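Input record (one chain):
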Amino acid sequence: MSSTPEAKLRIADPLRPGFAALAGLFLGLALLKFGNPALLDHLVQRPREYVEFVIQPWPLAWGYSLLGLVALLGLVAADWRLPRPRWLVFLPLAWLAWQFLAATRTIDARLTAVTLPYFAATVAGFYLGLFALAPSPRMSIFWAALIGCFSAVLILGFQQHFGGLEEVRKAIYAQPDWQQLPADYLKRLANNRIFATLLYPNALAGVILLLLPALAAALWQLAGRLAAWPRRALVGVLVAAGLACLYWTKSKAGWLIALGLGLVWFLRLPVTRKVKLALAGLALVAGLTGFALRFAGYFERGATSASARLEYWRAGWQTACARPVFGAGPGTFAASYRAIKPPGAEMAMLTHNDYLQQASDSGFPGAAIYLAFVGGSLLVLRHRAGTQPLTFAMWLGLLGWAVQSLVEFGLYVPAVGWAAFWFLGWLWGVTGEAPVAKDKHAGSPAALSRQG
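The corresponding structure, as predicted from the sequence alone:
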């Protein structure tokens, strides 16, 4: 009798709110403690004292252990119904299988050995979001935990902007051997761009683009019992703090993507078409003018970071063309780039383009599978997200992540990549059309609006 579907539902239903709470804590901890790319995990020292435990990043092995505990509960709480089209939902598994196949031809076994378990954890997050998180009837603790940790990231960003970076610089420069520290770290300290708990400023910009829309919508739902003005003020503070930190990252792509996301959001408002076009045009002109003024000095200096990215992309494409089927091996861009980079060019661990990196590391088949999954998911889920604020906001954040992936490596940063795949799985689950639906309203956007 215990094996009947009804019995399984009776066991799973009480566990789902607990799983949602653990999932929120896990993703929140990822923001605070796993902000370095997986390929740089060897540089993360294991904390030995309480202060180090609180302040320092954690090694990825700890993240895998935490994910394993969350996954154990998720397996029990899961509802295994698949949304349609099923082939799109299976693409992450196909992509991961191709990564393992490409690993057999890797040019650097050490880099690939670091990348494969990270990719496996990332794909696991997608299916946990789909099968275990989406069916949860109560998501309040999930959103509260994620909003709290995201707020902590923003608070640290404010602290860095208002004197924190200067204090760190003084402490570092007071050490007799500070010149021996990694050049990237010293450069990051010297340019006054905030990065909070992430590796560098553009990664923080990626976190804000991905999470801020959904967390603002979730906070609006959580604050539903407040009066109108306190509720608006609470959400307004979160949005203003997020946009301020995005501005202080000085991320050029982040600025333009945020402007684009704002226009997408604005164009769905219930106002006349003429008003939409007029105000959207004004906002676009103002945003681009502000961008030109803000980064005029950068372009006068020759846009060095853009030039460096072009060199990385050229090398990635060259590697993909030389190894079109299996690539150089998952995570091996640094090894392939080191062999072909021009003399004097800056070294890089990643291509700064997640889609091109797939082609470089796992051939054109790996890139095609990954692009089909991300692009196909955004196309399908845009129509299913509907008019509900939370589902649309999450889709909007995922769109920002996908666009930034053209110029950054968010996939390889756990704080970004894990959250994106969990969100993709959750959005598929709550908006998908399941072939068998005993409770057709359980995962609908209408029911979702009651979960806050």
